[in-house]
Design a protein that fits this description.
This protein has 221 residues and is of the alpha/beta class. Helix content is 34%, strand content 11%. The strands form 2 sheets. A 4-stranded parallel β-sheet has the order 3-2-5-6. The chain has a two-stranded antiparallel sheet with strand order 1-4.
C-alpha cells in the first residue's frame, strides 16, 4: 500500500483503504503495465512526501501531470532539472519576476517551493502519455478533495492558490474563515493575459502569512 513517510500516512489512512481508492489502484496497475504513464509510479505522491501536513503554508492546485516524456515528477507545474520549462511554467516565472523581482531560474524544478511549505498538488495525480486528462474521473479527484478538506480542518491559516477554472472548483471545499483563497486565470498562454499576469499572488500570499504570524515563503528558486 501507499507509504508517504510522514504524517500524511495517518491522516489519509482511511482514504487509502477505501473502496474508491482500491478501485483506482487496480486501474493504475493496468495502466502502468500497458501504457506509458506519468509520473513514474514512485513519484506519484511527491507533493505529499516533500510537504508534510503540518508544514503546509500554501497550496497550489494544478490539473493533472504533464503528459510528455521526462517532464512530470509529482509536483504540479514542476519539471525535472534539465527539462525545458513548459509555457505555463514560463508564465509563472514571468509573474514571479514582475511581482517580486526574482529572475527566471535556470531550472523548472519547484522542489524548493515544496520544501518551503508549498503543497504542489494536482487534482489528478497520473496521466497517460500524450493524453491530457486521461486519468480524470478514476478516483484521484476524490482523494485530492479529501486532502484539501483535511487542510481546511486545520487551525493554521493557509493560502489556497487556485489558477484556472479547474482549480477554482476546489474553492467550495475551503470553508474555514481562517484560510484565504487566491484565484486567478490559468497561467497557460491561452489565458494568462485574462487575469493571471498581474495577480501578484506570490507577494499577496506572503502578506497573508505575515499578517497571521507565519514565516513567509521564500519564492526564490
Amino acid at each position: 500500500m501507499v507509504h508517504i513517510g510522514n504524517s500524511w500516512d495517518t491522516i489519509l489512512a482511511d482514504e487509502f483503504t477505501s473502496e474508491y481508492y482500491l478501485k483506482l489502484r487496480e486501474f493504475l496497475k493496468y495502466e502502468y503495465s500497458h501504457y506509458h504513464i506519468y509520473p513514474n509510479m514512485y513519484d506519484i505522491f511527491n507533493s505529499l512526501k516533500y510537504t508534510d501536513y503540518n508544514d503546509v503554508k500554501a497550496v497550489i492546485i494544478g490539473q493533472d501531470p504533464y503528459h510528455g516524456a521526462g517532464q512530470a515528477h509529482g509536483l504540479c507545474f514542476s519539471v525535472k532539472k534539465g527539462v525545458a520549462p513548459p509555457p505555463s511554467l514560463v508564465n509563472i516565472f514571468k509573474e514571479l519576476q514582475a511581482d517580486l523581482g526574482f529572475p527566471p531560474p535556470q531550472s523548472g524544478e519547484l522542489t524548493k517551493w515544496a520544501e518551503n511549505g508549498v503543497l504542489l498538488l494536482n487534482a489528478v495525480l497520473t496521466v497517460r502519455e500524450g493524453q491530457a486528462n486521461s486519468h480524470s474521473g478514476k478516483g484521484w479527484e476524490q482523494l485530492t478533495d479529501a486532502i484539501i478538506m483535511k487542510l481546511n480542518q486545520r487551525k493554521i491559516p493557509t493560502a489556497f492558490i487556485l489558477w484556472g477554472a479547474n482549480a477554482g472548483r476546489k474553492a467550495q471545499l475551503i470553508t474555514s474563515p481562517i484560510h484565504k483563497v487566491f484565484r486567478a486565470a490559468h497561467p497557460s498562454p491561452l489565458s494568462a493575459y485574462n487575469g493571471f499576469f498581474g495577480c501578484r499572488h506570490f507577494s499577496a500570499v506572503n502578506d497573508f502569512l505575515c499578517a497571521n504570524g507565519i514565516e513567509p515563503i521564500d519564492w526564490r528558486l
